[in-house]
Amino acid sequence: MTLEITPRPFWMLPSMPFSDFWKDADEWMSTPWTQNGLSVYEDPKQKQVRFEAAVPGVDPKDIEVTYADGSLFIRGESKEEQKNDKTTMSQHRSYFYKVAVPDTVDQSVEPEATYKHGVMTVAFTTSSKPQPKQIQVKSIEK
User: Fold this and answer.
1) Quick one: pLDDT at residue 21?
2) Which of 103, 53, 106, 101 is nearest to 76 (CA)?
3) In what order do the strands lie in the sheet with 38-43?
4) Contact 142/117 with Cβ under 8 angstroms?
5) Is 4 inside a domain boundary?
């Protein structure tokens, strides 16, 4: 028996109608996005975008949260040192997160930052999505 393998270009992968691809888009787009200890949740019903960052072992007073130029920065650091007669043990934890904040956040409302069980949560209130603006084209004649 001979098996013949014919290479296929990557654009000829098994296909599905484009409408089927987007059929369940609401479900997978509303699930939290998580990467390296940072989760992003968008709740259109409560008009809120929430960022949750894992900062285990860091005291809340040692966490710095900054929002500037459309980005959220979360920094946390802790140092512990234990000394015995013969040994010294030290631990150092450092976390840094930077994430772009959507332009739908309401700039007039102060974000709320809370800490619970090693997770820093920063919640932004969202406003209605900006509507596209039609720009009139003017002709300039010489």
Assistant:
1) 52
2) 53
3) 33-35, 38-43, 48-54, 119-125, 112-116
4) no
5) no
Q: How far is CA 69 from CA 50, 102, 103, 109, in A?
A: 18, 11, 11, 16
**Contact in structure between 97 and 119 (CB atoms under 8 Å):** no
Domain with 58, as residue range(s), is 29-125
What is the mean pLDDT of the segment spanning 77-105?
A: 88
In a domain, 102, yes or no: yes
Q: For residue range 23-80, what is the model confidence (pLDDT) as tens digits?
A: 555 554 444 555 678 888 888 888 899 999 999 989 999 999 999 988 999 999 988 8
Q: What is the CATH number of the domain that holds 104?
A: 2.60.40.790
Give yes or no for a contact between 21 and 96, defined as CB atoms under 8 angstroms apart: no
- pTM comes to 0.63
DSSP for 90-139 reads EEEEEEEEEEEPPTTB-TTS--EEEEETTEEEEEEEB-PPPPP-------
Joined tokens for residue 96: 């840094």
CB atoms within 10 A of CB 72: 23
How many helices (H) and strands (E) are present in the chain, helices listed first?
2, 8
